[in-house]
Amino acid sequence: MNKKAGILGVGSYLPNKIVDNFYFEKIMDTSDEWIKTRTGISERRMVDENETTSDLSTKAALNAIKCANLTPQDIDLIIVATATPDMAFPSTACIVQENIGATHAAAFDISVACSGFIYGITIAKQFVETEMYKNILVIGAEALSRAVDYNDRSTAILFGDGAGAVVIGNVDEGGILSTYLGSDGKGKDVLTLPVGDSIKMSGSDVYKFAVRIMGEASLKALQMANLDATEIDCLIPHQANIRIIEASAKRLKLDMDKVYVNLNKYGNMSAASIPVALDEAYRQGKINKGDNVVLVGFGGGLTWGASVINWSIQGGKNE
Ligand code: UT7
Fold it and tell me: Which structural domain, as residue segments, surrounds residue 102?
């Protein structure tokens, strides 16, 4: 029988420093009211001056490994999805490999902006199902507060820092039923982070693309899994803007109580948004064994991806 890949454990880590919208009122021409109503964001986390993407990744990784009842020695491969690596090389994944003592693991980073986590779990699924590797750590992590231009009010207020991680391995029941990935380089200029520079974005172009692609990608992944939108138990969307999330839910005819939202607390954490939301939803008992969970994201590239997961682990409430 073919091996089926699924999530064995999930974890996250957020930096301690909380920065609310009133901070931005003081340094630029904006308001808490504008930010809340146009984006849904109230506050975000920020790394301190000595904290790096690999530090956040390491803590999230250890939480996911613990949740999977494994040790770092059991990990065969580490994939870090990030747009804000500590360095061009060594990869953030190699730094994590050393930090956690995963001495048997290969390690590399992927660059897919906000869609990175879904690309990461798709890569992991292939390696597990071909039996090349048994346990794979997939991390989405960002220190985006280092990549924003504090003179640009249209982007500075949007982003936050954090990390989420999963361990992907063999499951007997459920698992990753489908993944769907896409890209369109024609949109390469609408959302960019040039090397050594800060994030530039044509907000309304990204907005229109996001509203269309979130619904389309979710439906495509559902179709690949032989499911329809009425069978979704929990939707974990990329957390960029509450209006994008609500419009996507509407296109899927899904009640918002089936959609996990935490961008009010964290802003847009790019590759970290989906795994952090997944971890929180699981720990709050919003995802239980047997549930159909849809992950969907979009980002720079342009890129997008969606995945349907039939949840394999017992509820994490009060864990
Ligand atoms: O992970 C993927 C990355 N990004 C996204 O998903 C972002 C997608 N886009 C968006 O979320 C929205 O387009 C934004 C939140 C970025 C902007 O919201 P919008 O409703 O599309 O506003 P807009 O860009 O059309 O701007 C409306 C007005 C403009 O003023 P004028 O030209 O009408 O006078 C902006 O200058 O709002 C102004 N504005 C602000 N005002 C107060 C832009 N940013 C701010 C701000 N505070 N922070």
Answer: 5-170
Task: Give 134: exposed, middle or buried? Use CB within 10 Å, 0-12, 13-18, 19+.
Answer: middle
How much distance in Å is there from the Cα of 209 to the middle of ligand 1? 15
Given a cut of 70, is residue 110 above it in pLDDT? yes
| Rounded mean pLDDT, 158-181 | 97
Residues 78 and 9 in one domain: yes
State the total domains in the chain.
2
Average pLDDT over every residue of 161-188? 97
Which pLDDT belongs to residue 2? 66
Residue type for 10, please? Answer: V
Shared domain for 38 and 152, answered yes or no, is: yes
User: Would you give the distance in Å from CA 24 to the centre of its chain?
Assistant: 25
**Ligand 1 atom with minimal separation from the 157 CA:** 48
Say what angle helices 32-39 and 242-251 make with each other, to 10 degrees.
20
Give buried/exposed letters for 282-307 (b at 16+ CB in 10 A, else e). bbeebbbeebbbbbbbbbbbbbbbbb
Question: What is the model's pLDDT at position 1?
Answer: 52
**Protein residues with CB under 6 Å of any ligand 1 atom:** 30, 34-35, 38-39, 114, 153-154, 157, 191, 201, 203-204, 206-207, 210, 240-241, 268, 270, 299
Tell me the pLDDT band of 148, cut-offs 50, 70 and 90. very high
